[in-house]
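Students often ask why we bother encoding 3D structure as a string. The short answer is that it lets us treat folding as translation between two languages. Here is a chain of 169 residues written in the first language.
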Amino acid sequence: MHKKSMVLLFAYGSLSPDRIKDLVGSVDLVGPGIAKGWRLVFSGAAPRYQNKGTATLTPDETRDVLGLIYDMNCDQIDLLDCWEGAVQGITERFCIQVTDPCGQVYTCFAYRLVVQTGDVPASPEYLRLHHELLFIAADLYRQAQSNEVTRWKKRRAVPLDTCGTCPPK
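And here it is in the second language, the structure alphabet:
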């Protein structure tokens, strides 16, 4: 078992707060964030979603991706690695810079597909989960910009390797 160090996850696909709680237990939602220089695409074929596409990121300096930043421990990340397909080699963890509504930049980790197969339409269930995450992120971002949220908590993840992700078991 890993020590209980906290690391930051940038979720942009189907990991809404309710969904992530169902998968790994209670996590701390830091808030919304934008990954600048990335484009969201639907690619691959996810067996749990009728072999339809799943969200992944690809570099694109003209685009930005909205998502949520979570504070997690390494045991939770081990569980998420299984769900996201990292253990099976379908996805990989990578480092990504994410900016919150107040301009604070975080180094997070995220998952992306190892092999992208071009545009693959997502299933209705996956799109529902993705829209749920986007709605929450956009609403929190709007609140912060309109000063409904006066202060975001600054987080410092304990660096476990170069980008603060947990080492593989």
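Translate back mentally: The longest strand covers residues 52-73. Keep this in mind for the problem set.
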